[in-house]
Fold:
Amino acid sequence: MPEPTTPTPPRRAAGGVGTHPAAPAGPRPHAAGVGTSPARPEAEAKVNGAFDYASDLHFDGMLWGHTLRSPHPSAGIRAVDTAPALALPGVHAVLTAADVPGKLHYGLIDADQPVLAAGEVRYQGEPVAIIAADTLDTARLAAEAIRVDYEVREPQCDPQAAVDAGNHFRYQPVRLGEPVTAEAAVIIAREYTVGMQDQAPLGPESGAAVPTGDGGVRLHVATQWLHSDLEQLAPCLDLEPDRIHMVMAGIGGAFGAREDLSVQAHMAMLALATGRPVKMMYDRAESFLGHVHRHPARMRYEHGADEHGRLVYVKAHIVLDGGAYASTTDAVVGNAASLAVGPYEVEHVAIDAWGARTNNPPCGAMRGFGGVQTCFAYESQMDALAEALGLDPLEIRRRNAVAQGSRLINGQIIDAPSPAAPAVVGSDAVPQAGTAPSPAPPGAAGADARPFSPLADMIDRIREIPVPAIPAARDILDLPGGTGNTTHGEGVRRGVGYGVGLKNVCYSEGFDDYSTARIRLELEDGEPVATIHTAAAEVGQGHWNLQTQIVRTELGVDRVRLAPNDTKVGSAGSSSASRQSYMTGGAVKAAAEAARALWTDRDLADGPIEATRVFRHRATKPMDAITGQGDSHVQLALCVHRATVDVDVELGLVKVVDLTCVQDVGKAMNPNALEGQIHGGTAQGLGLAVMEELVTVRGEVKNASFTDYLIPTILDMPPMRLHIVENADPEAPYGLRGAGEPPTLSSTPAIVAAIRDATGLALTRVPVRPEHLTTGRPS
Amino acid sequence: MSEGMRVRMRVDGAEIAADVDRPGESLLTSLRDRLGLTGSKNACEQGECGSCTVLLDGLPVCACLVATAQCEGREVKTVVGAVPRPVRDAFVACGAVQCGFCTPGLLVSVADLLDREPDPDDALIREALAGNLCRCTGYEKIIEAVHVAAEAMSDGVPRVPARSHLHHNQWINVTTFPRGDAETGEDTP
Structure:
């Protein structure tokens, strides 16, 4: 991949020829700094076809790797005969579990997943053997030639039955008060189902492993977290971590799919076995089997409210299907439990959340991470309560909205100032930053007796944005069914619905979450140039650009360079949990501040300055195993959506005609990229609402292709109207709030609520499919 | 494996010969793996995603669905040779590129659209780009980029819109609360 260089913004007035620029006194506005929308540093390469994605890698003399996967969701392996594959011309290595050099298992949280299956397989698609050959075709033929003697077993595919049998990765209850029905004027009890969603990044899993000649290996791979990959890989390869050099390859989207290992251990094993570079690249079908998915969920909810619509109690029984291996199910269950009632005040709560172990495909990280499933359920419940009480759906949310000082169900106080500023440690003598001044509460609080509620404010704002009118004359193409020309408007009903989402930002539950940044300042042609070195994954969200903006703001330099992301600098953590602006943004800011301080005392003509900083957010606490209580989240972010839909109630076709969104982002660091995140997150929520489901039957995936797994096209997406709110978080760098995930939570329930409004159906399952709308429809 | 064959074609203006040893090899595989021309992307290889869209004798096709053997003597234009500068500039300026994996195919489709229809409305844009999947953007800024590109190409004046979304979407508003100076407070003397 070409080293990303950023376009030099228009020159500002600077020192004349012969004078060396001096350090700025502090951060200051820059034409391409924080709050502006400069072009991304890698955009030019991306529009010229010159950006090297992991699937574009090529090394001289390289072999192609391929994976033989289990066709069975559950089976014993009696024997694997690799001889027929090895006998094929052009095949250089065929490896099985017996060839794993070190530890046999890996995993993000629990190391329970076999590098290659030994003795049994637990899901369809589990890797059994790997092949290196001259061409990918040859490697695929070799995989077909391998004889595996399976003893096929009955798969365990029912998550509730698995939980009943004690097969779960985590059980997390939350208990608060005494949830009793007596005081409730209205009780709503319903069961909700969320299908298995896939991240479906367009770039396939891919990478290349290159032997370094001294027994070590260099991996070029598209991943969300280089250092976690390294930590998991090294023991499996039986190599010291410093013998493995991880280098980021160009990433074609991630959305959680690149959080777990895919090609990494396999291609490294093949490269070490053959002594040659080995490239691996999944095709789309293998991609669907080769990464984790969003947990499908079954959730039984009971909400009790008084006659004014104030919540009295909430009970929920949540079963998330973790599939065959642990992946991040532990953390997903924690999120589902702690965020189970959403951004609403309630005194009495009994939540039981499980992550089941089954023979279904492993599930783990996807944008929204445990927050998406429960959001669909609790928002559906809020609508049902409103309907039962004759209340406006926005009004019932407003009446229950958390405010500053409110207690979440995990006992955490929302938006309360914390005694500890973000901790920064570094490798030079610059003292730690002091405590940030506590800001006054936002001005809107003033007259109201209640503490300021950011959510109530956002609800008021979305109410003010007009609902789009039904045009007098509509093009047939604009109706549900679109180019299919299935209606002239008869049977088409309009509906409007709302959804509110609450998402935690950064890693929760006491995890030591940190990021590292190194900044080097030097003179080139008499001008200061800053080089940023981090391991943070640019997955498409615009993080490289953000780093350059921060450095330009903090150091006032025009010329900024990004060193390739690799493991020669400390961990940046994952590009997930909406955390990278906060965490690596925080690290880059801290390193830039340190470099600025050093620059004040010296002339760059005397030599370069380098500063490295490790940034940590405030410490969090685990959730109590019995009560779920614990100050477990770092930061919380809110998003409100309104969906307007047209539904052809005769054919069951849905056309989303408008999505309006109010989101609190703390600080719009790069407005253009931010809008793109909200648009894209909203689109994935639309996908879950009406299109996307990876269908499994008895553990077998039935639609592992873009022909059968449908993601939104440009025809499926409506215009999106955004109102971005900057309600700064004083603890976060620049006041920002993580923004990538919240829209994915709230758009799904908003769309389903709109479909309910149009059809009068209860709709307790997503995705909503045509048959859900045409059968059981009230006449 | 069958006997090899040599296919001569013009790719982005250059005369190129591809030695193909399988009759079914796709144009996409030949471009990417045989000729090292990786500008066209391989997201699905079954004609669903549009990431490999190229112009074949001026018509947009999915390179993964065309056999290289069909391309003898024909002209292939990829993202490298098919896309006018203003279209690329508009995609960059409007934020229509995120991960960028769909971008080469989308750019070729947009080039084809603007060649047929210099000033398309939203409905035409949606119809023309319906075969190009994007997982990152929700398509909003892609639509906007097509409008910006069309405008730039109509008068030949290259433009880089500062906050160009207002061109297409007048409903992006930002509200900033008064607050303590968290932005600069810590380090400003």
